[in-house]
Amino acid sequence: MADGTAAFPGFKRDTLDDEIVHPDLYASWDIHEVYSKLRRDDPVHWTQPDGFRPFWSITKHADILEVEKNNKIFINHDRTYLSPKAGEEWIKATTGDTHLFRTLVDLDDPVHMKLRALTQSWFMPPNLRKLETRIAALAKEHVDHMASLGGECDFVKEVALWYPLRVIMEILGVPRSDEKFMLKMTQEIFGPGDPDVAGESDNKAEDGQTMTSDQGVDLLKTAQELFQYFGAITEDRRANPRDDVSTVIANGQIDGQPIGEREAMSYYIIVATAGHDTTSSTVSGGMLELIRRPDQLAKLKNDLSLLPNAIEEMIRWTTPVKHFMRTATEDYTLRDKTIKKGDGLALFYWSGNRDEEIFDDPFEFRVDRDVKKQVAFGYGVHVCLGMHLARMEIKALLNELLPRLDSIELAGEPQSTRANFVSGLKSLPVKYKIS
């Protein structure tokens, strides 16, 4: 494996346990060597990386589902994602809680389900159908933009970033003039360990950790900016309700009482950030695989009825959310390993989506693969709220792009974000002919 310590000197690469948390590894294919070894030799692995609290690495598809289904035993609140001890301690000292935000992914039932219920119907297919025409128009706008660039562009920076962002901003009912602010906020939340993201702030991620004290200050500043921004949105939607998600959140109630300010602000943030970042990663990562596999691109172009399968394969292949954490509330036996009360577990979705027992030739990208069992959206009560919207967006873009695309090839080396939580391509230079 390539040595990534130069990019992330605060992380070690001395052991397999150190490798599995190293952000640099997630910007390469090397992480799959680690996953494959664990699936084969120790699928429920007690992991003790330097600088982190220990945890169980869960790498098999069936085990991920088992933990997700038992949401009363394995809870979210205590630990949502992998962070060095220094970062966890900073958050506790700063907020008095285990999290900076109180989003749906940070909470457990019954509060989680009550909050989720506020917008769940909004994100279901019957309601989303009213957006099909507008999403198709946005897809055409971005393919037209790609066509106007003279046959060469960075697909991530010109198309994949902006298209899903603009969909989400319309759903929230916020103006396009604020899109650069929203993109910046997303990158600062999901990419604090990536030098390209951190380099835009005053406190650079010199040690590459998920959160140093300096990065913590930056993240707190980002949170405060977002809280101020969405606070103004809340005031407006309470006075002037519209048919948008912001209105639903601003006027949301639980048990007859308005939801708390922190819960409301966190709700906006999870919709605004996760709602476009993961779709962007799927679109760009899927396009890269179609470029690398001309036979699969030709098969899809010749038969657009394969789009639902191809989209699921893109989601499986990219798995933008690499893991979520859970904490055991009681002792539990999994594959003859005793997980003790209070132990943390990392559910490695990217590994589950390469499980050889579930997927035939899992390291082959096939647009006609039947991928009903992919776990990129999670499972159970915490399954991704926006999964139907994501599929609709990707389908609209490919429906517009593929019939107009005569040819496409790489024009440079693709680059991925260095992050062990949410990651994907940050650059995809391409040459193409498009009508």
UniProtKB/TrEMBL annotation:
GO biological process terms, semicolon-separated: cholesterol catabolic process
Keywords, comma-separated and alphabetical: Heme, Iron, Metal-binding, Monooxygenase, Oxidoreductase
Region called Disordered, residue ranges: 192-211
Classification via CDD domains: CYP142-like
Entry-linked SUPFAM superfamilies: Cytochrome P450
UniProt-listed InterPro entries: Cyt_P450 (IPR001128), Cyt_P450_B (IPR002397), Cyt_P450_CS (IPR017972), Cyt_P450_sf (IPR036396)
Gene3D superfamilies documented for this protein: Cytochrome P450
Source superkingdom: Bacteria
Molecular function in Gene Ontology: cholest-4-en-3-one 26-monooxygenase activity; heme binding; iron ion binding; steroid hydroxylase activity
One Pfam entry name: p450
Biological function: Cytochromes P450 are a group of heme-thiolate monooxygenases. They oxidize a variety of structurally unrelated compounds, including steroids, fatty acids, and xenobiotics.
Stated family: Belongs to the cytochrome P450 family.
Name of this protein: Cytochrome P450
Naturally occurring in which organism (per UniProt): Hyphomonas adhaerens MHS-3
Lineage: Bacteria, Pseudomonadati, Pseudomonadota, Alphaproteobacteria, Hyphomonadales
